[in-house]
Every structure is written in structure tokens, then in C-alpha cells.
Design goal:
homodimer, alpha/beta, 21 strands
């Protein structure tokens, strides 16, 4: 494979190891594994999960559900608040796969219930501290209202409670991740205990990548739904979810200019390739970690180097004098992305190190 | 047009007014108008420029040059440092259109010169203070080396000096933009004066959107290359390049949840739709400005409201109590993007208010 322009590379062996590690952990912990497919966004990468016994998946949009249903997945949770504008597309989807939805508001349940002509499962989305969407424990009576309305529609099947502990992404240490997980789970377990008598066997579905990577015991959870772990990224490595060596995707970017006064490499590789996601590390904005590329993969992050600037097509990489000397215009340099989900969404395709093209939704 | 999922809308009349205003200003100021097509990225939108007499364009990648050459554009400047890995594609491009390149390093000129079998124009890219790429005045002797090497290859035709004053994007006022422009132009004029005797009629090509929008007199410049002005965005409105009413693109996003304690609307519309670009306004991170949508277009930004959070598919909009009351789950809300170039790159297509689909590169 001759790389001439920014190209996203996948180290398939790292990716498979990430999938294996997480599926084994789920099995050890006695929880179901329903991986989120929003990171890799590809039917091909998705198919690799089948070898690890995965039969149920999570997605974040109706579009993504349709794409993976067409690829043969028969059990899909759309982990996004139900959008009443998509009822017709949702209905066509139910003939392709068993679908679970998130409901967060009693007022829309009646609308949905009236429209359905076949069964869908639903979870109540719980906000356990992330404060993005979902109902908090303070809304317990609204949850009961919601369940009461839903119970009038036999096509609406209550499955349990689902939560995304997205506040772990801001955690500064594994201990902080554990703390968020335990506080959040406590609330979910309380809800399940309160309603199991009435509704029978309910599922608690959780599982952001930091929690799933760092914890060994998912105490109380029935199902985990991590997504990012399939590729990991710089943000996850900083939280402590993975080592830099587990990051499975890397942007290959051609060096197009060098600035010797500032020890900077300019590359073709910008915000339309990596996304504008950044982290602040040691008071510097960082848009990615440079690595050396070889045919067999890439190196550990080059010490003292970072992507310090990013515009639409340009990346600026601040490097050490030694690294500066070792790259010439026309060379390729690798960049580990800050947020792999967004880099994949930007690039829409990637290549394995063996040169296999993997297309996305 | 029934909108069910996040959809980028274009107000064509605003877009045409933006093009007209800039093309008239260029004519008044006696400079050539070579608009950058990296913002709209569409052959259809590009075709509208022909009615304003535009025949020469700017792009930021070889891919984009090939796309617009195929759409019939015959005079294209690739405003990105020449990437030696793309020489073969560049050569095939020269049979489709007259191409200008940027050169920033003497060492690659020989390589390029040897490969070419037909003429390409080239500019020396000048760093006049932005410090992304380009040669500074301190590199005057390297510029002479570069020109000396280039002069041995008849297919390399020296056109002049090109600079992107990208530091205007960080300017806090129109006065600051004018100041950056004038300081930067002074350096370019000095270079042109020094080399016109030897090289004849040289072109000074400049033109970021803030400078081109705010200045009336481009003193010394021969050509302007603004791009973002075609749609503008929240960032440009904050700099003072445009009014919010001139912003020609808007993401229509379905409201999927409401949080009455925090006065927040949750929408389907996230980082994969708007990009992660943000500005900091009044100590708050802002990912977009909400507006009300109507069939005929959209309102001014809703006072006191902003997109306060953005994940892959979710947007969280902080609103006033009045606005909170006026939106229900299932409604559409509009979001003016912080950086329209990146939102277009994320969405890859947009619709006019009349329902015409406009596809992108």
C-alpha cells in the first residue's frame, strides 16, 4: 500500500486483543457483553466480534441501527433518547432485528406506543451523575408515570434501566473512575430493587470504556456496553483505561514542511482527519501523539512531542531536536488520535496494516 | 422536505449575497478574486460563483483540486505545501487545469522539477506572523536558493508570494484584524519589491476571511482568496467579519429530551455533525448558537442560549426559561455552527431551504 495522503491505519492484532480482553472480562464478571459499535462504525470490524461470542450490540442512532441490521445483527439497543421524528424508520427496522430503545420522558411514550405494530424493548435512561440526558432518581414518580403509560401498550416491553457514566471521561485517575462507577451503580441498584417486584427480571445496562477497562467487578450490573475500547485513544490512555501500546488506530500523515526555528513538522493531517478534539496536558493543548511508522506497525509515542496545532487540513507537530532531524519532507509520521470515535467518523474508512480497506457507515 | 435526523440547511439567498458582496469588494479594490472552495466543498455551490465572474479558485488538497477540475474549473491554486508523495496525481491534474502550488523548502524543488512534464505555477508561501507554515523574511536567502533551483526547470513557473494571515482568527476586534493585515502586507510588499526586477510581474496573494471582510483597501495585494465568507459562522461573527444574520448554514436538530432543572434541551446533533470546534464566550465553552427554524429560514440567535455540551451524537443546549417552554420533544431547533468549514466536512451534504440536495466532495 503506497500512502500519499492522510490515511487512517488499524493494527488489527491490537484491535482483536482489545476485543478479547473485554469479552473475557465480561464473561469472568458474569455480565452480558453488548459492545457499542459507534467507534469502529464498520460491518467488517463488527464481524470480528462474532468470534468472541457477541450476538447483541449497541448503536447511537437509527441510521447506525439500520446499517448493522443490514449486516446481520439481530439484537440492537439504540442507546440514544427516542426521537419521535424517526418513528417510521424505527418501525421498518423492527422487521430486521429485535430493537431496544431509550425512553426519558412520559409525554412521548403514548405517541410511540400508538404507532408501533410490533414489539420493541425499552430502557429508562438514568442520569446517575453525568448530567447529559436521562432521568435522575429525583424523577422516580415520573418514571412510574412513564411505566404506567407504557404498560397500556403491549408492544412496549420494559427491559430495565440504562445509564452512561460519561463523567468518567473527565476522571483524572483510575480511583476516580471507580468512585464514579460505584456511586452511580448504587442509584441503579436502588431503582432495580424498587421495581423488580412489579416488573420481574430487569436489566441494569451500563458501561463506558473507562469503567469497563478499569474495574474488574461490575457489582450489580447485568450488561456492559463499552465502545471506544475496540480502538482506544490518547484520551483513554490518559485516564488509565489502556496503555498507549493498546491504541489500535493511527493516522499516517505526510510531512510537507519543517520549521527549524520552532522544531515543528507540518503535516497533511488536520481537523477534517483527526477531528478538533484535544486534551490539555502540562498546560499545552494536544491534538494527538506522534509515533514513528514501520511496515509492521508503529512505535510508542515519541517522547516530548505532540500535535500542537490543527487547522482544516494542516497539522503542526512540536518535536524534540532529535525527532526533528529524523524526519524529512515527504516522510510519513503517525499520529495517535485524541478521540478515535471522532477520527473514524471524519475519515469514514481505514486500512489494516496488511492493506485491507475497511469502509464505514 | 421532512427532517427526521440532523440535517445541514443552507440559506441560498444569504450565500449568494455573501458571494456578491465579496466579489464586488474585490472589483472595487482592484484585486483578483480567487475564492477558496474548502468551505462549501461542492461543485453545485461552486457553480454559483461563475455568475459573479469567478474563473479561478483556491483549494487545500490535491483531492479537492481533482474534484473541482472535474467540475470544469480550469485555474486552481492548491494553497497547501507541496506534498512530494502526490507528484503522480498532481501530474495527471495538470492535463485538466492550470495548477499553482505552494513551495516552502528548497530541498523538494529539485524533486518536483525533475518529475514534471508540463508547466505548473508556484508561489513561495510566506509566514507573515501566523507561524503555521511558510518561509519568513528571515529565510530570504533560502527563498533565493529555492528560486535559483526552480529556475533550472522550465516547467516550474514562479508566480509570486502567497500568505494566509490565519492569526486574524484569534483577533478580538476589527481593529486588531486591520493591524495584522497591515503588518503582514508590509513584509510581502518588501519581498515583491526586492524580486520584481529579476522576475517581472509577481502576484501577492492573500486573503483570510476576517481581513477580506473587514478591510476595504487591500493595499499592495494583487489577489484575495477568502473561503469561509461563503457561509460565515459564529466564529466569524464574533471577530466582526459578519453579522449573525449573514451566516448561511444552520444545523436542524431534533429535540429528543428536556431537563427542566437545568433548562437544557438535548438534541440529536453532536460532534459528528457540528465538529468539536468551540469558542469560549463569557467564560463558557460554546459549540454553537441556537435559533428558531421556520420554512423561510431561521431567526437571529436566541438570546442567552448556547450549545453547552457536545458528544458524538448528542448536543446539550442551555436555554432561558422562556425558550425552554417554547420547545417540545420532537421539535426541530437550529444551530449556527462555530466553524462552518468543519461542519460541512462532517455532514458531506446540505439542503437549500427549497429542498435542493447539495452533495460535497
Amino acid at each position: 500500500m503506497k500512502i500519499t495522503a492522510p490515511t487512517l491505519l488499524l493494527d488489527k492484532s491490537k484491535c482483536l486483543a482489545n476485543i478479547q480482553q473485554m469479552s473475557e472480562k465480561a464473561a469472568r464478571s458474569g455480565v452480558s457483553f453488548r459492545p457499542h459499535f459507534k467507534t469502529h462504525q464498520s460491518a467488517i470490524t463488527g464481524s470480528w466480534f462474532r468470534d468472541f461470542g457477541v450476538t447483541a450490540i449497541t448503536v447511537s442512532s437509527v441510521d447506525m441501527a439500520i446499517y448493522f441490521a443490514a449486516a446481520g445483527w439481530k439484537d440492537i439497543t439504540i442507546a440514544f433518547p427516542y426521537n419521535p421524528r424517526e418513528t417510521e424508520r424505527l418501525k421498518s427496522l423492527t422487521s430486521m432485528a429485535a430493537i431496544n430503545l431509550l425512553l426519558v420522558d412520559p409525554s412521548t411514550v403514548r405517541l410511540l406506543g400508538k404507532s408501533l405494530d410490533s414489539e420493541v424493548g425499552f430502557f429508562i435512561e438514568v442520569d446517575a451523575g453525568y448530567h447529559r440526558s436521562g432521568m435522575t432518581l429525583d424523577h422516580y414518580h415520573e418514571m412510574l408515570d412513564l411505566l404506567d403509560i407504557a404498560s397500556r401498550f403491549p408492544n412496549l416491553v420494559f427491559k430495565g434501566f440504562l445509564s452512561h457514566f460519561g463523567n468518567t471521561y473527565k476522571a483524572e485517575s483510575p480511583a476516580a473512575v471507580r468512585n464514579i462507577y460505584n456511586c452511580s451503580m448504587e442509584q441503579l441498584v436502588k431503582l432495580k430493587d424498587a421495581l423488580s417486584g412489579t416488573y420481574g427480571d430487569l436489566t441494569l445496562s451500563v458501561g463506558d470504556t473507562p469503567s469497563c477497562s478499569i474495574l474488574e467487578d461490575f457489582g450489580g450490573a447485568d450488561e456492559i456496553r463499552p465502545g471506544n475500547f475496540v480502538f482506544y485513544d490518547v484520551m483513554q490512555s490518559r485516564i488509565g483505561s489502556c496503555t498507549p501500546g493498546q491504541i489500535a488506530v493511527c493516522l499516517a500523515a505526510p510531512v510537507v514542511a519543517k520549521n527549524k526555528e520552532r522544531f515543528e513538522l507540518v503535516v497533511h493531517g488536520g481537523a477534517v482527519h483527526l477531528s478538533r478534539e484535544s486534551i490539555c496536558a502540562e498546560n499545552h493543548e494536544n491534538f494527538g501523539l506522534p509515533v514513528s511508522l514501520a511496515l509492521s506497525g508503529w512505535s510508542q509515542p515519541l517522547p516530548g512531542c505532540r500535535v500542537s496545532g490543527l487547522s482544516q487540513e494542516h497539522g503542526v507537530i512540536s518535536v524534540t531536536p532529535e525527532v526533528f532531524q529524523s524526519f524529512e519532507i515527504g516522510d510519513l509520521i503517525g499520529i495517535l488520535p485524541i478521540h478515535s470515535c471522532l477520527s473514524v467518523a471524519c475519515m469514514k474508512q481505514y486500512f489494516t496494516l496488511q492493506g485491507e480497506l475497511i469502509t464505514c457507515l
